[in-house]
Amino acid sequence: MHNKIYNSFIDRKAKGIKSFAVLIDPDKVTPADIADLAAKCTAAKVDYIFLGGSLVITNHLDECVQQFKTLCDIPVVLFPGSPSQVSRYADALLYLSVISGRNPELLIGQHVLSAPAVKKSGLEVISTGYVLIDGGAPTTVSYISNTTPIPSDKDDIAMCTAMAGEMLGMKVVFMDAGSGARKPITESMISRVASQVSAPIIVGGGIRDAEKAYLNCKAGADIIVVGNAIEKETSLIKEMADAVHAAAPVLK
Fold first, then answer.
1. Does 114 show up as a binding residue in the annotation?
2. Fewer CB within 10 A of the end CB, N or C, for the chain?
3. 4-246: CATH topology
């Protein structure tokens, strides 16, 4: 089914099931690392593997995707920082438009350039409204995208931005404090966005412990993405996955 991953987002949201995604930067993993991560993600029942980074300088994205696909059954979703980060071996591509910024290149410009290659890849393409939130420190994504993040205490701006993205046709809203964020997105902001947006909401950046992952889910996040914390301590994978899955409603 061509929309298999997006449909899984929608189906899980409709059932109130929260999802956990591990974000992996191809620049920072070796084949041995991938084998270890695949085993730990499988054991923890991780729902998705997001693969990508703001600045990928190595040239082994295809190999990373293929190795994960060989070692586990977890869907691999590309989270690209540039048009070059496309691999036909993945299950889906988050086609990101930085709707929180005012840089036309990241709103539509790069998409125009990448569209033929993305179409040719045969990947499932999921249009994603990317909303960058201030995480208390300059991040790679804010620098690369040349955009100013939404202030962390401006819940209404985040809400209106997400609403606009959804009404423009974005299928998913991705709220991100960015890699290296000192502080994660507040529950109040997540709740405000979730109160007005029906699209699946992905939240990432600055999430360092299971409690925060759990609270973000309770506030309205549908998918929690963690990268940096897991790079430093892979044992957090199971702890965070358990916390996210525990946030789902109890079926009677």
1. no
2. C
3. TIM Barrel (3.20.20)
